[in-house]
């Protein structure tokens, strides 16, 4: 007796069509050719074959809008030697979604990179460290004055707790143990100005000195006094930006972080292999 063979239809298991957006796996031979069966094929086997054909592995984060994001918002520079600008920062010539709110940078006429603070003006950018979430700014006049007066409102910059005290001394001019200074650009005609760690014991403060202000500072190392002296010497101040969920581990591994504008969630992409 001859057994009749017919092509398998979706209606055999109650399905009208293959779900939209679920491509068949290309590495299964039974998907590259029409599936046929005998009338004696078990219903369970039919269902298993159809489920396998409809299955598609989940996309990696790099496929989920990643390539299109970096085509629209590619890493860029103001000059050949300038720092790379990319998410969460952006240049003002790029669409607003290329960076987080308050992350706008611009290029000067001579190719310098400028970071704009809505209430404190623009600062010259020296370097950007995406893993440490840190931007280094050059301040030529009085770096500590800029640091103490800087208004971070409306920017991506992180608000820091007070860890620095400004101390005015009526007499002095020389080094004082545990303090950085005297700081020429902060002093006036009457007082010598120093800075010290806010956690320092105040009973060690010289009797001719009093606290006149406070502020926050970002520096490398644990010694605040050494950190302040380095700022005064290099005329560079450091600023950290706020943490972005998922980006820290991404940048740590040498990848680039971006944002999916549809879900408003971040994704991670290998810059050397964008499709992975």
UniProtKB/TrEMBL annotation:
It is found in: Membrane. It comes from Escallonia herrerae. This is RING-type E3 ubiquitin transferase. It catalyses: S-ubiquitinyl-[E2 ubiquitin-conjugating enzyme]-L-cysteine + [acceptor protein]-L-lysine = [E2 ubiquitin-conjugating enzyme]-L-cysteine + N(6)-ubiquitinyl-[acceptor protein]-L-lysine. One of its GO terms (molecular function) is ubiquitin protein ligase activity. Keywords: Membrane, Metal-binding, Signal, Transferase, Transmembrane, Transmembrane helix, Ubl conjugation pathway, Zinc, Zinc-finger. GO terms for cellular component: membrane. It is a single-pass membrane protein. Pathway: Protein modification; protein ubiquitination. Belongs to the RING-type zinc finger family. ATL subfamily. InterPro entries: ATL20-22-like (IPR046948), WAK_GUB (IPR025287). Residues 73-136 form the Wall-associated receptor kinase galacturonan-binding domain. Its EC number is 2.3.2.27. Its main location: membrane. Pfam families: GUB_WAK_bind.
